[in-house]
Inverse folding.
């Protein structure tokens, strides 16, 4: 296939590509900047085709550096800025990256081989020989996700994965060269990164933000600038509240909100309908390079709680059954599914019989709509971030005062869900000390927000903690 | 990849799929009909994966049979109904088809193994085991095109060719699930066939017609039913004239006319602009499975005479140069390019160094827009049909009264161009007899419309006819 960036700059040079903090780029200027940056990366010691990590919040400079990395055909490990130094270093070690490009604010998390993004921007621009053709099976990005084991696994996302994801998404909801995506999702998550990939493939503009700001988002929607946006339940609620309080009209130019990261409550959907906002609920994961099933807006209320049907290129099935309404593990197949993990999980097959086993439990109704009833490994989704109980439990057990630990999500008005810790402790236990220990080892959104000291944890016959019973301990 | 038809019927069963002579089909009913037809084809003796020919004008029954053939994974040789029995039989023999499905009106052109379409429709429906997954490299359709040799070559068009063509077309002009394509192009040409393939991939509706009818087309446009249509200069002129004479308004719901088969005159573009019709001029051929370069409507007048830039997945270059404004042979590369011919041309490489050499002459301007200056082998495009002079010359030379023959196109107000014959004859020459001979051996649109008896033909040093000098003989 053609080099997407060179092709995009050739085909639609004058179309708007990116806007960030008042700075705007056409596809021509953005790709020119990416070419320059590629030359600067070479000066900074980056080798084409090598595996490098990026550690930066959203910015135009991050976008330019991502695109530059693609021009150099590097494998880009996208690190989550919210993680602690311990977490980041574990990932960097597992990925065996040659260099890490980090902003000055983030660099303290990296032990070695760090290059400051701000310094790269000052480097001499070397002339780089760039491939005009790319290979589908090459790795574009790598993102870490924990899953059932509690140990983060690096997921390889190829050019083919991203391309088929972008194309099947467009077949589902349509696309127009005039679409403008508002992106407040972090680019280090596939939800944000995939917006960037769709942008270059579709030739669309991205309005990028470092973080979600309700007033700014609402402004871009009601003035008719933004046509699409990705949200989670929490950000959707903020937007709806502001629209309602200020009695604002959403113009028909706003086409779609893609809502991921767990089910959107019915009352939000009704409010969205009232506000003239079309919601497409979606189900996907890092291993499926973003969406794998999406519910069209016209079905939002008729199929409440469903995440829709597979996208055009994908197949989905429930393990062990072809009957409707029978629950089982959700399995996915298609050109968007990662071919492999990297690092210590590299030898683990992502597939069984050609199908990705997601660990999530769900069923299909009699019209073939998917309902996800239980997220993998008791996944806690907090403000759109995935939190795996096993990972928190391992940290808790690392402290001498904690003898046993179980973690589950507890409903939270603002974040949807937050982690709660159930622990069996020593006589010397002091909560402040364990909390401080968590803060040092975990991203703050993963630190337990509720603490319960108990005499024992509910366990099954093989002594595994039954996390779904933890909440019952409270009642 | 998934079986497109089963996937489409699963994903959007209730969406409109097809309309023909007042009969309408949703995607569910259309695919159900195709499944039944597949069962009837089995009863009629068709073997899955075999190569069969279809010989029928446009109809819903033809669409159902094409889709049924895909469900059986047959290779479909799409025969041009306008061809003579001699021409059809040469193609069938070359393609070595096991059976031919023809309408009763067309069956006289087929010597053996013909099955009447009307009879297939009455056959018992057998249960068929259909593959749920398809392979990109499998052949979907085969179409004959003459090219420089004058001898029709069967072009293999794979599932991957059609898929990438449909996807890159959508990236160029956008697509919406609500789009409705009006199709008066014959389904046996790639211009029409690709509308059917895009329909199943996009999930769009097709308004199908057996032939172009100005009043009906204008009705579908002005009532807001149709959103897209493929035209050639001749049909575009008819539509514009009717709109102008009746002073009709084209609603904004009509999005695009895709104009192929040669350059659209400037005065048509100006009239189209006046009528509020957006024109995208395109360049493509059977070997590229439809479009390979298309000029966006906003550039129609700024880049007069250009056919635009390559589609997103494609690359194009001019043989022997990378400089703008230098003419040379147009070469094309991409996943939409046929992998091979069949039959007696099966061993001929379609590619040289990975590039399809089109035989057409063109150049790029300094912004990378393609201009086609000379069609391959002095191609005559008459009302959207391609006519190759060499093929007509061979027929002429088959008659004893003709000693030498040269054919070129002459401008025609209605058809754009029509073939003219320049012949050196015997003393016993009688024009009526040669004309009748042509009619028996050639589709009527290929028969010369102008006859010139000359004493000698312009030839170059190696005695090849210089067709571009033929017209000069008249002045």
């Amino acid at each position: 296939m053609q080099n997407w960036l060179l092709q995009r700059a050739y085909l639609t040079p004058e179309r708007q590509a990116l806007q960030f903090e008042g700075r705007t780029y056409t596809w021509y200027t953005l790709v020119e900047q990416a070419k320059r940056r590629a030359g600067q990366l070479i000066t900074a010691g980056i080798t084409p085709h090598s595996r490098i990590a990026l550690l930066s919040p959203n910015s135009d400079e991050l976008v330019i550096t991502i695109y530059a990395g693609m021009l150099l055909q590097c494998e880009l490990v996208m690190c989550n800025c919210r993680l602690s130094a311990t977490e980041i270093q574990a990932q960097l070690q597992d990925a065996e990256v040659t260099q890490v490009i980090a902003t000055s604010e983030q660099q303290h998390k990296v032990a070695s081989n760090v290059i400051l993004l701000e310094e790269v921007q000052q480097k001499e621009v070397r002339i780089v020989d760039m491939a005009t053709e790319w290979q589908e099976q090459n790795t574009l990005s790598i993102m870490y996700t924990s899953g059932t084991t509690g140990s983060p696994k690096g997921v390889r996302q190829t050019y083919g994965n991203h391309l088929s994801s972008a194309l099947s998404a467009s077949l589902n909801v349509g696309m127009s060269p005039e679409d403008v995506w508002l992106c407040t999702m972090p680019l280090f998550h596939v939800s944000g990164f995939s917006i960037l990939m769709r942008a270059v493939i579709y030739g669309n503009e991205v309005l990028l933000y470092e973080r979600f700001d309700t007033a700014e988002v609402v402004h871009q929607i009601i003035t008719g600038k933004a046509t699409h946006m990705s949200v989670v339940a929490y950000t959707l609620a903020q937007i709806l509240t502001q629209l309602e309080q200020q009695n604002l009209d959403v113009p028909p130019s706003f086409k779609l909100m893609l809502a991921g990261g767990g089910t959107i409550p019915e009352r939000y959907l009704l409010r969205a309908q009232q506000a003239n906002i079309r919601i497409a609920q979606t189900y996907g994961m890092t291993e499926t390079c973003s969406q794998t099933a999406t519910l069209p807006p016209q079905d939002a209320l008729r199929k409440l709680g469903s995440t829709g049907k597979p996208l055009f290129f994908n197949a989905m099935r429930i393990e062990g059954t072809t009957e409707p309404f029978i629950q089982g593990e959700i399995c996915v197949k298609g050109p968007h599914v990662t071919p492999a993990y990297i690092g210590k999980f590299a030898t683990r097959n992502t597939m069984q019989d050609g199908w990705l086993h997601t660990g999530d439990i769900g069923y299909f109704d009699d019209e073939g709509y998917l309902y996800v009833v239980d997220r993998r490994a008791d996944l806690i989704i907090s403000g759109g971030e995935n939190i795996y109980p096993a990972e928190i439990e391992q940290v808790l057990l690392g402290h001498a005062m904690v003898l046993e630990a179980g973690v589950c999500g507890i409903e939270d008005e603002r974040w949807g869900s937050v982690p709660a810790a159930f622990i069996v402790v020593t006589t010397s236990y002091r909560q402040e000390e364990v909390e401080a220990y968590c803060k040092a080892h975990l991203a703050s959104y993963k630190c337990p927000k509720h603490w319960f000291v108990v005499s024992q944890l509910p366990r099954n016959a093989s002594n595994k903690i039954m996390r779904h019973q933890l909440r019952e301990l409270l009642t």
Remarks:
- Chain A touches chain B through 29 residues (CB under 8 Å).
- Residues 182-378 of chain A form a domain with the Rossmann fold fold (CATH 3.40.50.12780).
- The CA atoms of residues 435 and 447 of chain A lie 8 Å apart.
- The mean pLDDT of chain A is 92.
